[in-house]
Amino acid sequence: MYYMACGSQSRKVAQLAQNPATQLLCRTQDYNCTTTLSGAAELITCQETKNMVWEKIPVARDYFSGPEGADFGVLKFSLQCVEALCMSEGHEPVRVEVCS
Questions:
Q1: How high is the pLDDT of residue 87?
Q2: d(CA 63, CA 75)
Q3: Which of 8, 56, 91, 97 is most buried per CB count within 10 Å?
Q4: Facing residues of 6 across strands?
Q5: Hey, which residues does 41 pair with through a beta bridge?
């Protein structure tokens, strides 16, 4: 599972409340590999977890007043599937998928 800081009143939080299914997409700098993480996300209200995320993501201080602030939200992303698509040296696509 992954935790992410976000604005608690953001559009994404409202959308995830309606449908928690989500994906995170990552690419290598040269675009040769793309990885998609699929799963479900939910807004966390547990103050202990919010404090932990605040400590682990120092850049949050640039955007939020503190872990107790009404504007500071934490999303918990639970991973269900990983899919990677990479180009081989022969320029043939190589796909790997691992799902629980």
A1: 83
A2: 16
A3: 8
A4: 73
A5: 77
CA 82 to chain centre: 13
Sign of CA dihedral 18, 64, 39, 78: negative
Q: Which two tokens stand for residue 3?
A: 């935790």
Question: Is pLDDT above 90 for 63?
Answer: yes
Grade residue 99 by pLDDT with cuts at 50, 70 and 90.
confident
Residue whose entry in the numeric block shows the structure tokens 């479900």: 40
> Tokens representing 74?
């934490």
Which three-class secondary structure state does DSSP give residue 75?
Answer: strand
pTM (predicted TM-score)? 0.82
Instruction: Sketch the domain layout of the chain as residue ranges.
Output: 2-99
Task: Kindly give, in sequence order, each residue whose CB lies less than 8 Å from that of residue 17, ignoring residues fewer than 6 positions away.
Answer: 43
Q: Rounded to an integer, what distance in angstroms lies between the CA atom of residue 41 and that of residue 77?
A: 4
